[in-house]
Amino acid sequence: MNATIETMLNRRTIRAFTDEPIPQEIVDTLLKVANLSANSNGMSQYSIIEITDSQLKERLADICLQPYVAKAAKLYIFVIDVHRNAKILEEAGLSDENIRNMNSFVQGTSDGTLAAQSMVIAAQSLGLGAVFLGSILNNVDAVVELLDLPDLTFPIFGVGLGYPDQSPQLKPKMPLHMLLHENGYQEPINYHEALEEYDREMETYYDLREGGKRMDSFTLQVERKLISVTPNRSRIGNSIEKMGFRLKRED
Ligand SMILES: Cc1cc2nc3c(=O)[nH]c(=O)nc-3n(C[C@H](O)[C@H](O)[C@H](O)COP(=O)(O)O)c2cc1C
Question: The CATH number of the domain where 72 resides is what?
Answer without folding.
Answer: 3.40.109.10
